[in-house]
Amino acid sequence: MYGDFFDNDQSFLSRIDDLIDFNKVDLPAIEEFPSRFINRELSWLEFNERVLEEARDSENPLFERLNFLSITGSNLDEFFMIRVASLKDQYNAGYTLPDPAGLLPEKQLELISDRTHEMVRKQYSTLLRSIVPALEKNRIEIINPSELNPAQKDYVKRYFESTVFPVLTPLAVAAGSPFPLIANKTINLIVRVEIPTAKNQKGQRMPFAVVQIPAILPRLLQLPSEEGDGQFILLEDVVSEHINRLFSGVKIGTISCFRIMRNADLDIDDEDAADLLSEIETQVRQRRWGEVIRLEIQSGYDEEILPILTENFEISDRDLYEIPGPLDLTFLSKLPSFFKDRQDLFYPPFTPQPSPAFYGKDDYFSVIREKDVILNHPYEDFDTVIELIRRAAEDPNVLAIKQTLYRVGGQSPIITSLADAAIRGKQVLVLVELRARFDEENNIQWAKKLEQAGCHVIYGLVGLKTHSKITLIVRNEEDGIRRYVHLATGNYNETTAKIYTDLGLLTCSEPFGRDATDFFNMISGYSMPLSWRKLIPAPKWLRIDTLNRIEQEIKNAREGKPAAIVAKINSLVDPEIIDALYRASQAGVRITLIVRGICCLRPGIKNLSENIHVRSIVGRYLEHSRIIYFYNDGQEDLFLSSADWMPRNLDRRIELQFPVEEKSARMRVFHVLYVQLMDTDRARIMEPDGTYHRVDRRRKEAFDSQVRLCHDAIEAAASLNPEPRMMDRYIPSEVNATAVFKDDK
């Protein structure tokens, strides 16, 4: 099933040999191409544009379009809080070194502002001109207070009095007084009031008040409807409609709605922080009050209010966004939860299937002893990993469990099993990365729980963020101690495992086990291995290894041998890696990149990157797995990795890249790669200027790689279970792959 695209003995390169034309050329040094890098921030915005395209695509189910639009909003929020904030820090500090694309911080901020203003315009055009009418056709409406019928008005009034009013706190904005402190990302109303005086009963127009919309309450309030239609009102409209209750004896003037974005990047000096746990707790609390970097104000605002906001927040016109609709589009992702019975408005349902290797097996360890196992999430469920760790915790023969945790689920069964293992007397070592961005608070709580259970907890390493995903289980068996290892491209998070595509490897190969032991000794103590048998860690080793492998492909190409590199990664930013790929392209190495997000490399430039083809896949699931392939003169080296090709991953994080060697495991990974290269439905092709276009589907059948992998999982389960969970969408089994790539050029 997983090898239906090519025979088991056929090389991966030979199967895609005719997909891309390449040339061997004698060219000048790459340094003579000064514009060879794309700015990282602009490339990220191109990625968010691809997500926005999914929201604009009327072929997608309506509720999925809502989710995509919500994602573009949350993505943009994080982009401003971290990336734009960092650039502002550079600009304010007088930083004068350009980025690899040759842009200074000020120029980057200018280009970002232009691009994001246009993106916001597209977001709301999509919402108001396309999605709202589509919702109305399906009898779903978000209405204004003026559209409420008498029964709804009474319902809203009662809800306001009972639930909302007790939570609200009006904050006066008076002349000479400091402006109220506004929390990050909160929606606020600024209200003009008229206060009568003894001398002037006509009133005095000057004072204002700010009312924060309570984030603890649902943003959407469902309204009663005689016809059972789905009608809603936004919380800020509920408050605005009853604002008089907050200002008795005062005449209300205009009401304007605004939201601010603050710098939320943590600034932690590991070496100066005596207690990293305490320092991160403090910084997370302070995140709500960082420098204001963006102001959103809803259209129709009082013009006299705007100068007050911009002056107090120290916001320039470049950082001001006038919004022609509801602020903060992330609320849209909540709307589908009210209509779970409307399956026609969602993607066809798909339930992750059980792993064929473990289906019906009681002894997970014997399965792994038989051969290496590949797990493909979310097509196969994450329960296999959860169950393995649970069984290891309960198994009296298991002596130790060691694991790294980066992002963990809210109610993590893995944490429960690790704590249980420690209580049972097993040696349990857990590295909990406290600096996993926006998961800091969650990870702090888990770290404390594990310590209380008796686990040895490491809070990360000084100067390095631990991003690797590895579990080591040490078991006492009849023939001695055996080590079982799980390595993965994704986190130990049962929630994201349902929406992120990731690959995992289970093995008890002795070289992997010895490397895993050395790895944990390295991060928990002072051990520093001189070499590794199978694992390739970062920092230090992974960059060198990757560059050496690229150089080997260059050498082989120059000797007239076939040479190829295929990499599926999330981001390509590192200048040294990019320049190495350019040299490889010039030498005639065929390079195919599947880059979901940021790509700072320019493909298809004559005499530089003619042999580099870049595609991005944005679909139902977030592409997160990292697969690296080198032809290596027919040896075909195949790796999975936790690392992207970015300076932070290669130089400032603990990462792990690892080979896939067992034949059936390799076949499964090759299948994933090949299916993605065949995608004509969700794939976009990158142009030299950094823009993307969809694959030309003329004379081709639509082929969705993610849907195909769903069907693969269903078929595999069907061979074990006569009633597998099905998916209601057809995908063709055969596609002209040659035509796909010929048109990509």
Offer a concise description of the structure.
This protein is of the alpha/beta class.
Which helices and strands occur, and which strands form pairs?
Layout: H1 12-15, H2 40-56, H3 62-92, H4 105-137, E1 140-142, H5 150-164, E2 170-173, E3 187-194, E4 205-212, E5 220-222, E6 230-234, H6 235-241, E7 251-262, H7 276-286, E8 292-298, H8 305-313, E9 320-323, H9 364-370, E10 373-377, H10 383-394, E11 398-405, H11 413-423, E12 427-432, H12 440-453, E13 456-458, E14 465-466, E15 470-477, E16 480-488, E17 500-507, H13 510-524, E18 536-538, H14 541-558, E19 564-569, H15 575-587, E20 590-595, E21 612-617, E22 622-623, E23 627-630, E24 637-641, H16 647-651, E25 653-659, H17 663-677, E26 683-686, E27 692-694, H18 705-718, H19 737-744
Parallel strand pairs: 1-6, 8-9, 11-12, 12-13, 14-25, 17-22, 19-20, 20-21
Antiparallel strand pairs: 2-4, 3-4, 3-7, 5-6, 7-8, 10-17, 11-15, 15-16, 16-17, 18-25, 19-23, 21-26, 23-24, 24-25, 26-27
Biggest sheet overview: 10 strands, mixed
Which CATH-level-2 architecture of the largest domain? 2-Layer Sandwich
As a percent range, the share of helical residues equals 25-40%
Q: C-alpha Rg, in Å? A: 28 Å
Runs with pLDDT <50, length 5+? 20-26, 198-205, 268-274, 283-287, 728-745
First-residue to last-residue Cα separation: 30 Å
**Number of β-strand runs:** 27
Structure description:
By secondary structure, the chain is α/β, with parallel strands linked by helices. 35% of the residues lie in helices and 20% in strands. The protein has four domains: 12-32 and 536-744, Endonuclease, Chain A (2-Layer Sandwich); 40-137 and 316-346, Up-down Bundle (Methane Monooxygenase Hydroxylase, Chain G, domain 1), CATH 1.20.58; 145-289, 2-Layer Sandwich (polyphosphate kinase like); 364-524, Endonuclease Chain A (Endonuclease, Chain A, 2-Layer Sandwich). It is built from 19 helices and 27 strands. β15 (470-477) and β16 (480-488) form a beta hairpin.
